[in-house]
Amino acid sequence: MKRRGLIGLAVASAAAPLAARTQAGGPVIFAAASLKNALDEIAAGWSQQTGKPAPRISYAASPALARQLEQGAPADLFISADTDWMDYVSQRNLIKADTRVNLLGNRIVLIAPRDSKVTVEVKPGVDLAKVLGGGRLAIANVDAVPAGKYGKAALEKLAAWDGVKDKVAQAENVRAALLLVSRGEAPLGIVYATDAAADPKVRIVGEFPADSHPPIIYPAALTRDSKSPDARAFFEFLKSSRARPAFEKQGFTVLVKSATST
Questions:
Q1: 3-state SS track over 217-252
Q2: Contact 261/240 with Cβ under 8 angstroms?
Q3: Among the four 25, 48, 202, 243, which has the fewest Cβ within 10 Å?
C-alpha cells in the first residue's frame, strides 16, 4: 500500500503545464518535459549574452502543451517530443508552418534505481515481468505522451508488452516516470536517455534497439500568435552552434542543419 500511495503522489506531483503569463518579460516557451535541463541552461546563456529577459519556459507532456495552445494559451514557441503533436497544432493553424524544424533526436532506455543489481538484455522476447517481480514498470502515458508511445511501441516490437501491460505505472510525463524510479518506488522505468543522464539516482540497465520504435524527433516552431519581439531571436539561438553543446551534453542528437553554423 505504501508503494502504491507514493506512486500516486509522484504522478500527481509531476510538473503540470503552467498557464503562460502575459506580463512584460522574455518569450514564452512551451517545451516537452525531457528538455528541461538543456533548455534551462540555454535560456540562461541567451539572456546573459544578449541582456534580454530570460525566456519563461513551461515544461509538461507534449499533448498537454498542444492542447493548451489549442485552448488559446499564449506562447511564442512550441517544442514537442514527437512529430504527432506538432502535426496536431499545425493542422489547427496554431504555428507558423514555415518556421517548423526537426530540432533534436533522442533514444529510449530502460532504467533502474542506481543501487539496483538488475541487468537486462533488451531483445525480442525479453521477460520484463520476471525482472519486475512484484513491482511496476514506470512509463509515461502510453496512449498520448511521446515517451510512453515510443516505449509501448518498442515493447510490442520485442513481443514484451503483453507480459507487462498489467504491471505499468503510467505517469503524466516522462520526468514523472523518471521520478518513480529515482525514488525507488518502481524497480524499472522507460525514459529518454537524456532523462537518465539528468538524474544521478538512476542508471541505465538496457537500451532499446533504434529499429524497435519510430524515430524520436523533437520538432520546434514559432506559434501563430507569437507576440514577443525576442521569440524569433531566441529560436535562432536554439538552432545555432552556441546551443549545440548544451543539447549534446544532455545526450540529445542535434538534427537541425543550421546548428552547425556559427
A1: EEEEEEECCCCCCCHHHHHHHHCCCCCHHHHHHCCC
A2: yes
A3: 48
The strand pair at 202-207 and 56-60 is best described as unpaired
Q: Which of 164, 262, 150 is nearest to 215 (CA)?
A: 150
- Residue 186, helix vs strand vs coil: coil
| Residue 139 near residue 217, CB atoms below 8 Å | no
Is 242 buried (19+), middle (13-18) or exposed (0-12) by CB count in 10 A? middle
Domains present along the chain, CATH in parentheses: 2-9+106-212 (3.40.190.10), 15-105+217-256 (3.40.190.10)
d(CA 199, CA 196): 6
Model pTM score: 0.84
Q: What are 197's three cell numbers?
A: 543522464
C-alpha closest to that of 215 among 139, 154, 140, 145:
154
Beta strand pairing status for 28-32 and 77-79?
Answer: parallel
Which residue reads 519486475 in cell numbers?
Answer: 132
pLDDT digits (tens, 9 = 90+) for 185-239: 999 999 999 999 999 999 999 999 999 999 999 999 999 999 899 999 999 999 9
* C-alpha pair distances (Å), 93 with each of 72, 96, 113, 180: 12, 8, 42, 36
Q: Which three cell numbers stand for residue 23?
A: 506580463
Q: How far apart are CA 166 and CA 77, in angstroms?
A: 37
- How far is it, in rounded angstroms, from Cα 152 to Cα 71? 28
Q: Residue 98: helix, strand or coil by DSSP?
A: helix
pLDDT digits (tens, 9 = 90+) for 29-76: 999 999 999 999 999 999 999 999 999 999 999 999 999 999 999 999
